[in-house]
Amino acid sequence: MPANELVLYQEEFQRLERSLRQLRQDASARAVFLFDKSGQQIAAAGEIDQFDATSLASLTAGNVAATDGLAKLIGEREFSTLHHEGQRDHMHISIVGKRAILLVIFDERSSLGLVRLRVKRSSVEMEKIFEEMLVKGTRTTDGQAPASPFAEITDEDIDALFSE
Known about the structure:
The protein is of the alpha+beta class. 45% of the residues lie in helices and 19% in strands. The longest helix has 26 residues.
């Protein structure tokens, strides 16, 4: 397993969902999504049925990637937060733990200042969860690195599989 690959366990997934629900409530947001940088949804909370989550995930990841390119063009390492303001709805996008993208969709019931404040606090909690996932994914119960799931497959097993 690559060093930066995370394994999402049920316990951590539930903690991430709780964190998103709390963020949604504290920020008075319509919806909160957590995506990985490749554009896959990890978790969500709020009025998620009102949005096409698959499109949001891929377009948000593309937006972050494009913005990273813009940052490099002007000599910045990255822009860790983005804000898009619409007539009714607004979006706040931030990078969490250099691993995930947090998207908060909010309207006039909230403000950018409140969202930024709540995202900052929530991001610290989510970063801890990601770090725990990373540690948990690299250790087994005896503290050793996990064996590859393919380690027990032999050449004979592969030959037998394709012989018929």
